Amino acid sequence: MSVKLKYTNLIKEEAKRLGFLSCGISKAEFLEEEAPRLEKWLSKNMQGEMSYMENHFDKRLDPTKLVEGSKSVISLLLNYYPEEEQIENTFKISKYAYGQDYHHVIKSKLKQLQEFILEEIGEVNGRAFVDSAPVLDKAWAAKSGLGWIGKHSNLLTQQVGSFYFIAELIVDLELDYDLPVTDHCGTCTACIDACPTEAIVEPYVVDGSKCISYFTIELKNEIPNEFHGKFDDWMFGCDVCQDVCPWNRFSKAHSEPLFNPKPELLSMSKKDWKEITEDVFKKVFQKSAVKRTKFSGLKRNIEFLK
Q1: pLDDT (tens digit per residue) in 108-140
Q2: Closest of 210, 167, 214, 206 to residue 21, by C-alpha
Q3: Where are the domains of the chain?
């Protein structure tokens, strides 16, 4: 067995032990196919007010500009599909935000993986990324064979659908690289047909500035009136395109205790949400990603749904 393969197997085994769903590895190099796609998307202002998407264009496409001397991108998936969901007929929160903020949960696992690499392999330099730097997570995960990018622009796998987080370790170590998998969306247009705000403007292209997740999380100003009545009761994020995807019938509940919600979150009715106080907000969303909108943002979203 080659040294590269030996190190690769070690890393993948440890990733599994840490609770990651899967681990794929690709060569750190310029993302040629993504460059024109990203440029076109930005030129059409599909990023809306997410101006950070315009920054670091080169680094976004080339990990060697982000991490000096990098050779490999290790992509990891972590399942967040919940065992139980919110009650029927209430204001909804995207499933990824039920438990503790995933940034902290994943960062801690990545740190452990980095320490393992240093102990077992030696002086390997690298950086961990969880959705907070100019890294095209989905493109790297697809390149390393963890799934394909579906028509709703999320990463999809035949085995477990799409309810998982993506993270990376970019390292200066040569490893054994995986190959991409084929697209299995076929002629299905379930996600396009179901999107409440018609944000999936064509297969594989989502206009971020029309997405319910964008309006309820990223947008700092008032939500445009033209979208009134089109939010399908989503007050933080939106899972519609994933919920209707046939591949998600294979989703299995996660086993990460930190992703379990506070019990009251699942049982709150529309009336409860309308009357929510800042104290209740702080209690229910103590370490949650929902804190990103702040109490005032969630109140704005709930007002918009009335």
Answers
A1: 999 999 999 999 999 999 999 998 777 899 999
A2: 167
A3: 3-88+96-171, 190-249+260-305
DSSP E strand boundaries for 119-206? 126-129, 148-149, 155-156, 164-171, 200-202, 205-206
Predicted structure pTM score: 0.94
Active site residue 193: no
82 torsion bin: left (phi>0), alpha (psi -120 to 50), beta (else): beta
Residue set of the binding site: 60, 131, 155, 166, 185, 188, 191, 195, 211, 213, 220, 238-239, 241, 245
Q: Indicate which residue of 101, 131, 193, 279 is catalytic.
A: 131
Report the 10 Å Cβ neighbour count for 104. Answer: 12
Contacts of residue 192, defined as CB under 8 A and 6 or more positions apart, other chains included, come to 151, 152, 200, 203
pLDDT in tens, 45-72: 888 777 777 777 888 889 999 999 999 9
